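Appendix C reproduces, verbatim, an entry submitted by the partner laboratory led by Prof. M.T., so that reviewers can inspect both the input and the predicted structure.
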Amino acid sequence: MEASVGDILIVGAGIAGLTTSLGLHRLGIRSLVLESSDTLRETGFAFTTWNNAWKALDVLGIGDSLRQPHQQLQGMVVTSTISRQPPSERSLKSEGKLSEREIRCVRRKLLLEALVRELPIGTIRFSSNVVSVEESGYFKLVHLADGSILKTKIDGVNSVVAKWLGLKKPDFAGRSAIRGYSDFKCSHGLEPEFLEFLGKGVKSGFPPCDDQTVYWFFTWSTSSQDKELASPAEMKQFVLSKFNNLPDKVKAVLENTPLESIISSPLRYRHPWEVLWGNISKGNVCVAGDALHPMTPDLGQGACSALEDGIVLARCIAEALTKTPCRELDNDEFRRIEMGLNKFAKERRWRSFQLISTAYVVGFIHESKGKIMTFLRDKILPAFLTGVLIKRADFDCGELSILNATASV
């Protein structure tokens, strides 16, 4: 099938892809987003958005619309399920290094819909499964499963693109997660706090989204002896069996969760040294979001960093296209695009390394079973570990302006 031309092609309508597309739109640049599903993907239910994410959302102009339905979390309370130590409490209301701290648990569906609402009609092409990428002079040819071919000047984001760049598939972290979403239809009775429970090799968290809904997660280190959890009913029973001593209000969150709102998945991550030394970009192709830095969820920074990626990538592309683009990609424009994507890679490489590494170490400490590590985690390190989460959120991705193109940390 004859190739059609699109200047900027984004593979995947996830958070990073849609953020990049909207960032480009705000700068007056059109893009085409290819999504393999026939609708927006809502897997994961919700996620914690720290102040670095709100900076990116405000830059996009959609921050206030997402604040309204999501309550701000005032503190973090970490409880050991095996020691008699009182819970470690940390306020989340104080000023951060770069801005006021703001943490909310945002529903994924509402975030994706907010991003899409601001995009021009026709920006997203659903049911477009990319199977391969090949070079054609300065252009890239993107092959779809239906046999069509798209010819593009700039291509990026998705895992298919990561494969073309030579990045390995994310590795299994030796842990799995069960996630759920509970809607009480009335008040759940929890305070606006991020509740976290640690002990016996497992970890769980219960951040409320608003007065009626709570997102929860449960992670554990898996072994070959573990029974496979084939159904949501088994997943729910498994989580309840691990936490007999939870407060009644928290246990009610698990019991109230419908089976259709429970999912399970293995946790995967990219080795941090691959981010440092691997190909994040090559020519006019790059990766962002989970395709760049898949990480364990222990920092709550997966979605936040994807938003950062989108802002930085849109800015770097816009800088490369400041001159009037030609329909036929010449050497000068190709080099400017290449330099723009290299700049993106340079800005995001160390940040991605930090997040992946820190998340892995925090997860290891949280789920360790040894007596020494348990003692350190429960009595010495609680305030330090919470401080690590806060510190990694103190990041400013910068503005959507080619005149102000630096991020701060």
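Residues 404-409 have pLDDT under 50 and may be disordered. Additional entries are available on request from the coordinating office.
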